[in-house]
Amino acid sequence: MINGIMDIKDQINKENLPSHVAVIMDGNGRWAKAKGKNRIFGHKSGVKSVREVTEAAAELGIKYLTLYAFSTENWNRPREEINALMTLLVSSLSSETKTLMTNNIRLLVIGDVESLPSVVLKKLNTVIHKTSVNTGMSLILALSYSSRWEIVNAAKKLAKDVQEGKVLTKDIDNDIFSEYLTTSGIPDPDILIRTSGEFRISNFLLWQIAYSELYFTNILWPDFRKDEFFKAIFEFQNRERRFGKTSEQIKA
Ligand code: IPE
Ligand code: IPE
Ligand code: MG
Fold this sequence. Notes:
- By secondary structure, the chain is of the alpha/beta class.
- A six-stranded parallel sheet has the order 3-4-2-1-5-6, sandwiched between helices.
- The protein contains eight helices and six strands; from the N terminus they run βααβαβαβααββαα.
- The chain has a single domain (18-146, 188-235), classed as Decaprenyl diphosphate synthase-like (Undecaprenyl pyrophosphate synthetase, 3-Layer(aba) Sandwich), CATH 3.40.1180.
- α1 packs across α2 (39-60), α2 (39-60) runs parallel beside α3 (79-102) and α3 (79-102) runs parallel beside α4 (118-131).
- The protein binds 3-methylbut-3-enyl trihydrogen diphosphate (IPE) (2 copies) and magnesium ion.
- One 3-methylbut-3-enyl trihydrogen diphosphate binds at residues 25-30, 70, 74, 85, 196, 221.
């Protein structure tokens, strides 16, 4: 508390936290452009926000944080930008391992990881292995990820299991289908945050966000720090999630 004004963090109800927060980290390029710098500078500056948001989520006691870091469609960006992003990924994984260990966070990854350069894949596996002993929050990086890729892939794997008699068609339901997604075992996001003032989902977790609360902010990703994260959680707690029921039923 400073000057009698309560910190936004103190206004968050610890009994009503989202289990899973998903974030579309957008606006690095525009942030850099506004400063007369190149897009890569924006991506580098975005790493600090990744660290702050990860720490903020862990401080609150959130169990799962998923960050959309690179989409399937992002492979269509200029070669130099892709290379810079991959290099930045490797260096950030190295420099942030300490943050993960200190905060008891385990790293997971979703997406078509086989399509990543081998240096990235190797580094990822090292950090995933090293942090696998941690029992606090799970930090899930979505890399070379797109939801349609994931759903098609799930359909293929499920079809194979049906063919081999491991699953009966009549038994397929939401729960069974979910097990074939890369997020198997992870609860659906309670809130999805997107920065940079874009109002779209960009092929992220289409199945999983069926009932997520959506939170859009104009803040560009490199400016999205702890307090912005706390603000989003605070707003989430002031929404009424009805899941098809009436408000009266929810209050009863
Ligand atoms: C998000 O920032 C980072 C990635 C998609 C890798 P952008 O690079 O999309 O930044 P804008 O949207 O061009 O400002
Ligand atoms: C979405 O951002 C993907 C990530 C944040 C990794 P984009 O900047 O690629 O999204 P679009 O293409 O503008 O929708
Ligand atoms: Mg963008």
